[in-house]
Amino acid sequence: MNPESLSFIFLNAFLINNFVLALFLGLCPFVGVSAKRDTAFNMGLATAFVMFVSSTCAYAINLVLTAYELEFLRLISYIALIASSVQLVEMILKKFSPALFRALGIFLPLITTNCAILGVALFQTSRGYDFLQSVSFSLGGGAGFGLAIVLMAGLREKLELSNLPNITQAAALSMMLAGILSLTFMGFAGLGTTA
Amino acid sequence: MADRENEPNKVPPLPSSFSLISTLGAVAMLSGFLVVLVYEYTKPIIAENQRLATERAIFKVLPKASSRLTFLINEGKIQLADDKTKGELIYAGYDANNNFVGLAVNAAEQGYQDIVKLLYGYQPETGCITGYDVLKSTETPGFGTKITTDKEFLANFNCLDAKVNKEQSELINVIKTVRHGTKKNPWEIDAISGSTITSNAVGRMFNKSGQALHPIIAKNLDLLKTAKQQKRGNHGQSD
Amino acid sequence: MANPTKKEAPFTMDIFTAGLWKENPVFVMMLGLCPVLAVTNSVENSLAMGLASVFVLVCSNALVSALRDFIPKQVRITTYIIIIATFVTLVDYIIQAISLDLYNKLGAFIQLIVVNCLILGRAEAYASKNSFGKSVISALGMGLGFTLALVMLGGVRELLGAGQLLGYQVFSLDFEPWVVMILPPGGFIVLGSWLLLINYFEQRKTGKLIAEDAASHCTVSQSRGL
Asked: Residues A186, C179: contact at Cβ < 8 Å?
């Protein structure tokens, strides 16, 4: 498969180089908000949404920065952009979809310091993706994050019912689980290369 | 400060917008000043580092070269450029007497984990690909990384056939990777057993790059060969 | 560890050492995990990442503390983020100037220091309320604790994954490297093992778990940061 085709970029961000399990982006919410499956799902949804919005905006702002040769301001503008797009998404949701807002509400502010969001913006710039490729990349990244966090929450829900030694409680076991999940995701490497 | 923490219920009076904006403005000015200062200071050093890194790779794949020129390939034409030019760049190497010794060409392809980027040496006169340097790879250590260490695999590139046909439209033979131990022709690459996907990627990458660029290089060979001497002629003694 | 300036003794040592171990940002507070796992496949990368984070942490906390009386509450987070982003941009260019190889290895993770919740968390929770000297020392302690954790992970991963330490062969060449250790899963597994080990000793010593509700720390400091 052509490595620059839209479907491959999506697949790559979604499975092969999963944002959480292969690139270690967005670990804070991955550990912090994965205790229950439905909250995890909502978190994934909110993140994917913000990822899409900020990736699109980052693409636009990068055009401006490159045009005026202001690349050294890129990081500062991206982070400001993400902070404002989170607030923007929050306001829009509040106005047009109160139900969705109630579901996602408390997660939205947390997303600003989610490195996956900044990661999408930085990676799409450094790989020189065009607009459609960026969109596909951010959708894949968001879906990948959602998948990882929901899988993790599923596993942790099961663990609640089991009898575990004391020392494995808290984050230690989550890390081990994440390691095993990451190991399974390595099986996706090599996908699409034989075509 | 302490009051604010002790009385969370008391809403502090909202400062005027002016003070908010001026604070943000002042911090932004300070930040801009610092960034520009360091940027200006490090810019030449970074450019020099990048030049050294590029040249190190070029001289590695063209061991006989002692100087090089950068060219841009654009819509079937080759023109002199510099490293900052955007687009498909190739590098021509010249020895101490300014004789042309070969080309260094970029190639990239999806490997096992992520994109693998190479710079390879190409001799347009004999049509040989003569070795490469890996610029970027996140292949599995011990497996995909063998493309830089496996002696048998590297022996494929003593002279990998990438000759251009008479019409100068494409390669005579399609470069491809074959199963380990079944290589028969000089345009085939003997795969590393256990690292087939990365080996295949190398083969596809050379074929893609060869089909696209080698015909153009063949058409413009004279320009590449004489560019250095002409440049010296134009600029007198400057090197 | 180096003795910090004894300007504000007797607190100073505590302020400094708290970050090193008792409140270690990685093992106890679970902050800034992304770089912890992403770049620790060798000791060299871990050290470079740790020192870059120390630089950003100390500089930004110093500036936040120095300006703490002038920054109105409403715009403080924006200001902190601008300050942090500035120093990260500086580090980014400085590392490129020092070594391009190192820069390529660390990749985008230098720029991602910006969203390391450790830095914003310390700016908000400590530097904005404490004097300049204390903030700097505390930031230094936290930063070194962060570096220590990174090196502890990087050491294990490099030793098992490549049989080397800092590029020197430690095990004989017959040693079959555990490649998985330098791959992503290894990061999770080694961190998990360290946590288990620390939990075990802590439980034997005090009967309590060191990282009791570690998972919630990150979220708390994130929400506090906003």
From this structure: no
Q: Give how far Cα A179 sits from Cα of A14, B30, B222, C188, Å.
A: 18, 43, 57, 5
Residues in B 139-178 with any Cβ partner in C closer than 8 A: 140-143
Is the CB of residue B185 less than 8 Å from the CB of residue B173? yes
- pLDDT of C120 above 80: yes
Say how many residues make up chain C: 226
Please report whether residue A195 resides in a domain: no
Pairing outcome for strands B67-74 and C164-165: unpaired
Element (H, E) at A117: helix A115-126
The closest CB to that of C81, out of A23, A79, A115, belongs to A79
Q: What is the DSSP letter of A70?
A: -
Residue B33 lies in a domain: no
Q: What was the ipTM of the complex prediction?
A: 0.84
Residue A1 sits at the chain B interface (C-beta within 8 Å): yes
Q: How far apart are the CA of B24 and the nearest CA of chain C, in angstroms?
A: 6
Provide the 8-state DSSP code for C207: S
Using the Cβ of A16 and the Cβ atoms of chain B, whether some distance falls under 8 Å is answered with yes
> Which residues constitute the domain of residue A122?
22-184
How many domains, chain A? 1
Q: A19: nearest CA in chain C?
A: C34
For residue A28, give the nearest of C5, C36, C129 by alpha carbon.
C36
Amino acid in the structure at residue C27: F
What is the structure's pLDDT at C3?
45
DSSP C180: G
DSSP state letters, C178-226: -GGGGSHHHHHHHHHHHHHHHHHHHHHHHSS-TTTTHHHHHHHHHHHT-
Note down the domain range covering B178.
Answer: 47-234
Quote the number of domains for chain B.
Answer: 1
**Residue closest to C162 by CA, chosen among C69, C36, C56, C45:** C45
Give the contacts of C96 (CB within 8 A, at least 6 positions apart). Answer: B42, B46, B49, C103
For the beta carbon of residue A181, count every other beta carbon within 10 angstroms.
Answer: 18
Whether residue B235 has pLDDT greater than 70: no
Coil, helix or strand for C23?
Answer: coil
Q: Do C79 and B50 touch (CB under 8 A)?
A: no
Residue A110 domain flag: yes
CA distance B74 to B87: 8
User: What are the CA-CA distances from residue C160 to residues C10, C30, C179, C183 (Å)?
Assistant: 42, 24, 8, 11
DSSP class per residue in B145-158: THHHH-HHHHGGGS
DSSP element (H, E) containing C181: none
Chain C residues in contact with A28 (beta carbon < 8 A): 31, 33-34, 117, 218-219, 222
Mutate to test the interface with A, among B113, B115, B116, B139 (most CBs of A within 10 A): B113
pLDDT digits (tens, 9 = 90+) for A91-136: 887 888 787 777 766 667 777 767 888 888 988 888 888 899 999 9
